[in-house]
Amino acid sequence: MLPFRFVDRVKFIVERQLVKGAGFQLLVVGVFIGMISLVGGLLVIPFGAPFEDVGDAIWWAFLRLTDPGYLGDDVGNWQRLVSTILTISGYVVFMGTLVAILTRWLIAKMTDLERGLTPVTLRNHIVVLGWTSQTLPLLGELLGSSGRMRRFLEKHDTNRLRLVVLSETASAAQVHELRNEPGIGRKARQIILRSGAAIQPDALQRVACLDASAVIVPSAAHEAGSLVTSDVETVKALLSIAAQARHLGAPLPFVVAEIQDVRKHPVIERAYPGEMEVVAGDATISRLMVQNILHPGLSEIYNELLTAGEGCETYIRGGDSLAGHTLAELASQRPRVIVLGILKPAGKGWNIQMPAPSDTLIAAEDRVVMLARDYAETEPDPKAPALPVINRGQPVSRPVVASGQVHRVLVLGWNRRVPSLISEFSSYSQLRFEVDIVSVVSARERQQEIDRYLGEQRDVICRHVEADYMVEGELRRVAPLNYDSIMLLSSDRLASGEEADARAMVGYLQLEDLLSEGGRRPQLIMELSDPDNRHLLAGHQSEMIISPMIVSHVLAQVALRRELRVVLDELFTVGGAEIQFRPPHDYPLPASTDFQLLEKVVAESGEVALGIWRNQPDERGHHVKLSPPRSEYLDLQAGDRLVVLCST
Questions:
Q1: How many CB atoms lie within 10 A of CB 578?
Q2: Which of 124, 258, 392, 521 could form a disulfide with 213 if both were Cys (CB 3.0 to 4.6 A apart)?
Q3: Assessment of whether the complete model's pTM goes beyond 0.85
């Protein structure tokens, strides 16, 4: 074995001290300064310099090392030579090295502060675990929900909203994104970023999960075939929160968790014993897509109801301030609101009555479901005249009638939601669907995913075509004109939502060329991942679904009002309440009618009139007008349809 050199040993010892941080680095530099001062002082003593002892000589050397201004006081060539060497050494060791260490330490500290590694000292705030494509619209929804947020803050006895976001690597770039996001802008100062992963217990403590009034866990994208999925991370995060609460003896916060695979719902509930609402993101989008196939044009309605911006939204009011009134009396006192139904407690859940008879009495523990443009409209307006009381009887079930024909659906593209989509088709047992899936992903892999999700269920005929719909020749061989509906999906296998949407939009333009060649035009539904791309296809003839915006809205609003989840599940799943389009001749309407009269006539069938679907769009390209003023004459034209809430 070769012997170690003395120099190598010294280098190793110095290196081990330097890597310990700024404090040890300063200590090493201090040792070097002391050694240089000692050597310099010893060099000038033998030459008769005016020093009383060695201490004075060392102090003289130290002064020359730290300050070049003493050079003019030296006498004699030897003192001047030593003083010059000491001064140059001071520039290198004292000033250069010392300043470099302090600068690096300061930059490192500032970087750590920017990364958000210190725990927050907040209470009753809202925590979002994860920075995904849904985070920005989710934060915009929370900051824009003024009425719901005001009630939420009053409930938790606080007067200021604070949002804490846990990101893998918090950075100044993310702060810039927050400031540029519509709906956030200057409100970005209400958002605090912290670094860490939701599966790390210390990161959960960093955002003070146990002191939060609500914790939102959105799903993150993962590579296909990865063993660590978003649902796995969600379960781990919930287990960590529950473990921290047990260790500290603290109460569990309210959690809104998104899962991709709805079959994991029992696992999620088992992982977290506290109050929680689970939103199945993939199943929600799949339900909306199938509903839109059953009722073409419905996408415009739920894009209004389930995204931020102008238009109507669904609100839920507690019965404590409404107790003793009937639904008819409540509706007459709120002229800008449409009462959709009522939720009555049933064990740990709710008994949903949508629509509900107008003579239903409201109890203090009930929840009333309303459609309005703003939360303030759900309050009684003493200045406005009361509306006439509308009598609505018990709703009559009007299910979708099976035509006996097979509805052929062409799916262009592949993502993780397709198995859930096929499952949703299968839930409508009275209808027959045939689905052809075109993708570059191998047919074997796709079929395995569907079989794994559906099990032995085979109610929907599903065929696979290995082709690239971006190539005109391959798309033409599929013959898209032979289908009743076409779905253009945004891929989740690309690096970003922008790339996935770029592919989807190019495919849409390619498809439009083939559909323009003539024949009966099928219904076209396009899914996008990036909300910024929704305005790029001006004048498009497809129905558009922006998945992250819809799921973000649901997560945000359920966090503020948890009963909203059961209402949305009721509206967009098979059976129960459903939004449908009806021709005007289904009801005994006079030639000239306003919305108030329409509401009364529709109520006689036990249904709720929501608005009008115009055959000709307005100047903004919108067909639907929900909750128009009661006194507005409808002027129904050929092809116009009524939007009603009915029971199926």
A1: 23
A2: 124
A3: no
Q: Sign (positive/negative) of CA torsion 18, 23, 27, 33?
A: positive
Write out the two tokens for 381. 């307006």
590, 633 contact by CB (below 8 A): no
Which structure tokens are listed for 94? 């004292």
Residue 365's pLDDT band, with cuts at 50, 70 and 90, is very high
Q: Which amino acid is at 252?
A: L
pLDDT, tens digit (0-9, with 9 covering 90-100), for 437-488:
999 889 999 998 888 888 766 678 899 999 988 888 888 899 899 999 999 9
- Residue 582 to residues 184, 603, 608, Cα–Cα distance (Å): 39, 14, 12
CA-CA distance, 347 to 566, in Å (whole number)?
14
* CA triple 50-52-54, angle to 5 deg: 105
For residue 609, list its beta bridge partners.
644
pLDDT-derived band at 69, boundaries 50, 70, 90 = low
What region does 166 belong to: left with phi over 0, alpha with psi -120 to 50, or beta? beta
Q: Assess contact for 613 and 642: CB atoms under 8 A.
A: yes
Report for 36-50, 217-231, 579-593: range of highest mean pLDDT: 579-593
For 468, residues 6+ apart whose C-beta sits below 8 A from its C-beta are: 440, 474
Q: Hey, what are 477's tokens?
A: 């061989």
Q: What SS3 class is residue 314?
A: strand
| CA angle, 436 then 572 then 564, to 5° | 145
In which band, very low, low, confident or very high, does the pLDDT at 71 lie, cut at 50, 70 and 90?
Answer: low
Residue-level pLDDT at 1: 45
CB atoms within 10 A of CB 315: 24
**DSSP-H helix ranges across 353-496:** 418-427, 443-454, 472-478
Q: How many CA atoms lie within 13 A of 266 on its CB side?
A: 1
Closest residue by Cα to residue 484 from 292, 283, 282:
292
Sign of torsion over alpha carbons 385, 386, 390, 395:
positive
Using CA atoms, how far residue 298 sits from 14, 205, 634, in Å, is 72, 43, 20
Closest among 597, 606, 600, 582 to 634, alpha carbons compared? 597
